[in-house]
Amino acid sequence: MLEACTNLASPVWVPLLSLTLSNSFYFSDPQWTNYSVRYYGPGFP
User: Would you give the DSSP letter of residue 7?
Assistant: First the structure.
């Protein structure tokens, strides 16, 4: 799972819906244009 947040000082992590794992790594964030800054990190269940 990959998650995104907009503030690392007080993070609220939101899971991303599109994630593909294979020999390479690709993810899609259709909401990225709505934020001036967006941080990504691995999500843990």
Answer: -
